[in-house]
Design brief:
By secondary structure, the protein is α/β, with parallel strands linked by helices. The strands form three sheets. It has a four-stranded mixed beta sheet, covered by helices on one side. The chain binds 5-O-phosphono-beta-D-ribofuranosylamine.
């Protein structure tokens, strides 16, 4: 996993992957910041950690080569971005074809980028949520693996909305990782070159309606 901050999604992935029937094993947490709160949480959970400080490298490529070396040294097979606040270059992304996943606090392709909750509130949308997707070179773009929706309430602030979405982030990230690790979620390409994920064994056909 790659992190930059508090690592609540990281902690959710570590906890979920402990279950005997979860197909992924968390082997290393890499942070680009030495003061990331997630590092102590990972260590407390017995997970190896490493700091690769981007400020110690002259350019993105050499930073990413250092990250890549740590991942390879630990035999990593899937990379999960969990609040990792550096843009990755195509060089790194191409090293992890359909093996690099990210969580974003909005229902992509809506609200790419930052301040998603404040923007959703300003637009008056009634449903927002979160998305786990495969990473592609464009920011917050890539085949969607799992999404969760939450209602936007009339008295929400960006903070209360973020907290409601975060609860769902902690549910869907472990689910998405499990599906990628088991091979249940895989990318297919249509005749026009557009990618999407199909999922074996997924159920549910309920509508999500808000306000109800
Ligand atoms: C989450 O909202 C995630 O969707 C976004 O950054 C936040 C990270 O939180 N990419 P945490 O570090 O996992 O607590």
């Amino acid at each position: 996993m790659l992190i930059s901050g508090g690592g609540s999604n990281m902690a959710a992935l570590i906890a979920a992957a402990r279950a005997p029937d979860h197909p992924a094993e968390i082997v290393v947490v890499v942070s680009n910041r030495a003061d990331a709160g997630g590092l102590a949480k990972a260590q407390a959970a017995g997970i190896a950690t490493a700091v690769v400080d981007h400020k110690a490298y002259p350019d993105r490529r050499s930073f990413e080569e250092a990250v890549q070396a740590v991942l390879e040294a630990h035999g990593v097979e899937i990379v999960a971005l969990a609040g990792f606040l550096r843009l990755l270059t195509p060089w790194f992304i191409e090293r992890w074809p359909d093996r690099l996943i990210n969580i974003h606090p909005a229902l992509l392709p809506a609200y790419k980028g930052l301040h998603t909750h404040a923007r959703a509130l300003a637009d008056g949308v009634k449903i927002t949520g979160c998305t786990v997707h495969f990473v592609r070179p464009e920011m917050d773009v890539g085949p969607i693996i799992v999404q969760a929706a939450v209602p936007v309430l009339d008295d929400d602030t960006p903070e209360t909305l973020a907290a409601r979405v975060l609860v769902q982030e902690h549910r869907i990230y472990p689910l998405a990782l499990a599906r990628v690790a088991s091979g249940a979620a895989r990318v297919v390409v249509d005749g026009e070159g557009r990618e999407r994920v199909i999922t074996t064994g997924a159920g549910g056909d309920g509508a999500l309606i808000a306000p109800l």
